[in-house]
Structures are given as C-alpha cells and as structure tokens.
Amino acid sequence: MPHRDEIQLKQGVFTLSLDFELIWGTQDLFGPERFRGACERERAAVVRLLDLFAEFEMSATWCIVGHLFLDHCAAENGCKHPEIVRAKHAWYPNDWFARDPGGSEATEPIFFARSLIQKIRDCPTPQEIGCHSFSHVIFGDPGCSREAADSELSACVRLAQDMGIELRSFAFPRNRVGHLDVLAAHGFTCYRSPDPNWYERGHWPNAVKRLAHLWDVLTAARPPVGLPTRTSDGLCDLPGSMILFPMHGLRRFVPNFLRVRRAVRGLDEAVRRKRIFHLWFHPTNLADGTEAMFASLRQILQHAAALRRAGDLEFSPMGAVALAGV
C-alpha cells in the first residue's frame, strides 16, 4: 500500500456512522420478502435513533442508499433505472433491478425512504447525510466497473442535491473498497474503510471472519482506534472500529453488557491515545431485540457524553473529521 499521511488529532474523537439501506442491502442475496418485517421495524428504529441522537447532541453520519431518496419510480420503456450502468456480480445473474417493484414509498416502504431522509435532514441536532451507493452494488468487486460506479454516484449526488443535501462521506456496500478516484471526482471527501482487525485483512473465508468477530464480542476485546489518513486521491480514510453487534438469530444469546463493555473500552482508548473510536451499524441491527439494543446504545452514549463533559472527547461526524484534517 502506498504511504499515507496520518492526520493527527488534538483529543479523542467519537464518530458514529450508519449504513441505511432497508432491503437494498440484501435483495441480491435473499430477495425482498425474507427481511421485509425487519425492514419495516428498521423504519421505526430510524425515528427512535434521531430522538436519541438529539437527546445526546450526537451528530452522526447517515450513509444512505440513493434509491431511498426517491418517493416513487417506474420502468421506462420496460427498463428500470436506465441511467444506471449495471454491475455484473457473479453471484447474481439477473438484472440488478429485477426485484425493484417500482411504486412509491406508500406502497413499497422497504424500497423507498424519502420521508425518513427528510426527518434525518431536519433533526434538531444536525446529522450528516452521506452515501452508500445508489443500489448497493459492491464497488470493490470485479463485477462493478468504473462506469457502473460513476453512474451510481452521479444518481446519488443529483438526488441529494434535489433535497438540498451535499454528499461528502461514503460507506462502501459490504465494506468492499473500490473506485476511490470516482469518489473523488464526484466531490466526496472521505470514506469509511473496514475495521483494521486481522480477520478483515486478506482473503479469509467468511466463516472464519464471523467466528473471529464473535470471539471479539464474547471476550469484549478492545476494538481498534486509529487516525484518519489521506489517500493519493485526496480522500480521507476513516477506518471503522467496531460494529454494534445485532441480536439476529443466535446472536440474541450474546449478553448486551458485552456489547457495551467493548464500546466503552474503545472510547476510553480513543481518549488515552487521541485517536478515533468509530462505531458503525445498520439501523436494522436494532430491529431485533429492539429495547435491549437501544438500551445498550444509550449506555454507550452516556459514557461518551461523560467523557465529552470532562473535555476529553469530541463528537464528530465523518465529514467534519475530514474537513478538520484539510
């Protein structure tokens, strides 16, 4: 990897980013029906998250799939979203929009979320709205060409501008980094890279990654904290630290105090070393075990708020970190 300049910080920083995608995050793997209920609960979780962030004066970064900016869509001459150059991922031989039913937010609320984006934009505590591609194609996969990435970002930037939003921060679908030059060309200033754990480097099987991550959670291993770096494209790379482990399936048996303890260790380490603790998750992570998950997030924010009151920690969304490092 080419040498990168680290951006030094004056104190610890707490950054929180969310990948808001509703059904778009899994439609290529499972279709829309398997997680329809979870996506509907995710919509309710978004509103609760905004209330929680306002209470703690937390400015988070919401990286949102561009299709959610729409309030309706329909095929044109038999083609859905003809302006988007198709990615050709090996695991999905159909047209990428084959499962897009069209319609509106009223009829298909797991495919559209314009009203929720308006709520995010209008939150009393300002939230940053970033990008998560237009349709959750995998930028870091060989099937996503430069032309496909360019068309996806063009659509996102245009839709955001129509709502008075300027996109600066990006989270890569499935954390697969690619086409950084295209990001820079569309005016983005920063992105979240994968958590720098050993099992996220190289080409470990997914089963190994899941087991290693589960071990980190069960042992409340201290998550990595880091410094942002500047890429050759002029972008600011903000690595993740940890995902807020959901309660889907067997994960519901993981005690929530372990989720909290691990995040607290990350916050304390960020203060000690003047680094970033970058917590991230999908709002759908709160769709199962919702009350317990919100209670855990509240405890994490309470600890962070105490560190901020002591003058040891700053809350900063991704775009503000990148701007401070210019």
The total count of strands amounts to: 13
Largest sheet: 6 strands, parallel
Number of helices: 9
Helix content bin:
25-40%
How far apart lie the N and C ends?
22 Å
Low-pLDDT residue intervals, each spanning 5 or more residues? none
Described by the principal axes of the CA atoms, the overall outline is: globular
Account of the 3D structure:
With 326 residues, the chain is α/β, with parallel strands linked by helices. Helix content is 35%, strand content 14%. It contains 9 helices and 13 strands. The strands form 3 sheets. Strands 2, 3, 6, 11, 12 and 13 form a 6-stranded parallel sheet that branches. The chain has a 5-stranded mixed sheet with strand order 1-9-10-8-7, with helices on one face. A two-stranded antiparallel ribbon has the order 4-5. It is globular. The protein starts with a strand and ends with a helix. The model has no long low-confidence stretch (mean pLDDT 95).
